[in-house]
Amino acid sequence: MIFLLIFGFQVGVGAMLSWWPTDGGRYPASAHVTVWFSLIALQGASAVWYFLPSRVLIEGCDTQAACKRKFPKSGEFDVFTI
User: How many CA atoms lie less than 13 Å away from 65 in the CB half-sphere?
Assistant: First the structure.
Protein backbone atom coordinates (compact mmCIF):
# COMPACT_ATOMS: atom_id res chain seq x y z
CA MET A 1 0.00 0.00 0.00
CA ILE A 2 2.75 2.45 0.89
CA PHE A 3 4.46 1.86 -2.45
CA LEU A 4 1.26 2.75 -4.28
CA LEU A 5 1.00 5.96 -2.27
CA ILE A 6 4.62 6.84 -3.01
CA PHE A 7 4.05 6.21 -6.71
CA GLY A 8 0.90 8.33 -6.60
CA PHE A 9 2.73 11.24 -4.96
CA GLN A 10 5.55 11.01 -7.52
CA VAL A 11 3.01 11.17 -10.35
CA GLY A 12 1.33 14.10 -8.59
CA VAL A 13 4.61 15.99 -8.26
CA GLY A 14 5.31 15.45 -11.94
CA ALA A 15 1.80 16.55 -12.89
CA MET A 16 2.12 19.73 -10.83
CA LEU A 17 5.55 20.50 -12.29
CA SER A 18 4.16 20.13 -15.81
CA TRP A 19 2.00 23.23 -15.24
CA TRP A 20 5.12 25.37 -15.72
CA PRO A 21 6.91 25.80 -19.06
CA THR A 22 10.31 24.18 -19.37
CA ASP A 23 13.43 26.22 -19.85
CA GLY A 24 16.14 24.26 -21.62
CA GLY A 25 14.50 20.94 -20.67
CA ARG A 26 14.21 21.87 -16.98
CA TYR A 27 11.45 23.29 -14.85
CA PRO A 28 12.14 26.60 -13.09
CA ALA A 29 13.09 26.69 -9.42
CA SER A 30 9.82 28.47 -8.59
CA ALA A 31 7.91 25.42 -9.84
CA HIS A 32 9.86 23.10 -7.54
CA VAL A 33 9.45 25.43 -4.55
CA THR A 34 5.70 25.70 -5.14
CA VAL A 35 5.30 21.93 -5.39
CA TRP A 36 7.38 21.35 -2.26
CA PHE A 37 5.35 23.88 -0.27
CA SER A 38 2.17 22.18 -1.49
CA LEU A 39 3.47 18.83 -0.22
CA ILE A 40 4.44 20.36 3.13
CA ALA A 41 0.97 21.93 3.45
CA LEU A 42 -0.62 18.56 2.65
CA GLN A 43 1.51 16.84 5.29
CA GLY A 44 0.66 19.55 7.82
CA ALA A 45 -3.06 19.16 7.16
CA SER A 46 -2.71 15.37 7.46
CA ALA A 47 -0.91 15.74 10.80
CA VAL A 48 -3.65 18.00 12.15
CA TRP A 49 -6.30 15.52 11.00
CA TYR A 50 -4.38 12.63 12.59
CA PHE A 51 -3.66 14.22 15.97
CA LEU A 52 -6.93 16.04 16.63
CA PRO A 53 -9.67 13.81 18.05
CA SER A 54 -12.77 13.44 15.96
CA ARG A 55 -15.80 15.19 17.40
CA VAL A 56 -18.02 12.56 15.79
CA LEU A 57 -16.45 9.80 17.91
CA ILE A 58 -16.32 11.76 21.15
CA GLU A 59 -19.71 13.50 20.95
CA GLY A 60 -22.21 11.80 23.24
CA CYS A 61 -19.61 9.58 24.92
CA ASP A 62 -19.31 10.53 28.57
CA THR A 63 -17.90 7.13 29.56
CA GLN A 64 -15.93 4.44 27.79
CA ALA A 65 -18.86 2.02 28.10
CA ALA A 66 -21.17 4.56 26.44
CA CYS A 67 -18.79 4.86 23.51
CA LYS A 68 -18.59 1.09 23.13
CA ARG A 69 -22.39 0.91 23.04
CA LYS A 70 -22.58 3.77 20.54
CA PHE A 71 -19.75 2.49 18.31
CA PRO A 72 -19.66 -1.30 18.72
CA LYS A 73 -17.51 -1.90 15.60
CA SER A 74 -14.72 0.48 16.61
CA GLY A 75 -12.54 -2.41 17.75
CA GLU A 76 -9.81 -1.62 20.23
CA PHE A 77 -9.87 2.11 19.53
CA ASP A 78 -10.18 3.97 22.81
CA VAL A 79 -11.19 7.63 22.51
CA PHE A 80 -10.24 8.25 26.12
CA THR A 81 -6.52 7.65 25.49
CA ILE A 82 -6.23 10.42 22.91
Answer: 0
What is this structure's pTM?
0.57
Return the minimum-mean-pLDDT range out of 29-33, 37-41, 76-80.
Answer: 76-80
Half-sphere exposure of 54 (CA within 13 A, CB side): 7
Q: Are 17 and 27 in contact (CB under 8 A)?
A: yes
| Other beta carbons within 10 Å of 20 | 14
The predicted pLDDT at position 69 comes to 65
User: Cα–Cα distance between 49 and 51 in angstroms, integer?
Assistant: 6
Q: 9: number of CA atoms within 13 Å, CB side?
A: 12
